[in-house]
């Protein structure tokens, strides 16, 4: 039975990504406990999802790595590209440096959206606890605007107010501007689906629900067997549900990618050139 399941999961996670272009991609990692060399260690389980040409969500891939590192993410994204990942306009993720470097190296035409939920936690860490309530409200006011121009105008007003009272918080926010507002290049109708990794939280919860029963896995193959089966099941469910994004709004989003200068986007960019531009 385990052999049959392994074959099914292997076929799923190595299948050609032929339903592209995958205009929007989201990436995240979870930590699992595994027995290796007579001790219990933590391994990173990297997962990517995307929206295909027909507007449906897909699970694109899953791999394990000893740690959530640049090398692990680079290998993961290179595998996705080799299997057919194309046409990516934007990738949403947290600000793990290795992950962002891998995105920039393997998908240089894509923009990067820093997950707004993760960023709020990062901003909270540099904000005095007594001040976080109103700072959080200001941050949310940026996302509540009706169009891209209004988003950027509100961002400027928020910065101006913060520099007067909390200059360190303002500086942190200003440095993150391009990353947390990347979504504004795309149609307003899909902002909520792409400005954070929150749409994947249900998927992460289901993975956790199933893996918590095991606790400590005997090996990495067992991790891939169970997590891969959960992901394949979710992948099939998404195929039966309504479109995640409409075809018309996807077409307008692809036009944004088409408008970017290909001369500025070589096939793969050395990660060393990207690292200094990332502020986690």
Automatic annotation (TrEMBL):
Assigned protein family: Belongs to the transposase mutator family.
A GO biological-process term: DNA transposition
One Pfam family from the record: Transposase_mut
Coiled coil residues, start to end: none
Native species: Intrasporangium chromatireducens Q5-1
Keyword set, alphabetical order: DNA recombination, DNA-binding, Transposable element, Transposition
Protein's name in the database: Mutator family transposase
Record function comment: Required for the transposition of the insertion element.
PANTHER family attached to this UniProt entry: TRANSPOSASE FOR INSERTION SEQUENCE ELEMENT IS1081 (PTHR33217:SF7)
Stored InterPro entries: Transposase_mutator (IPR001207)
NCBIfam families according to UniProt: transpos_IS256
Keyword Ribosomal protein among UniProt keywords: no
GO molecular function terms noted in the UniProt entry: DNA binding; transposase activity
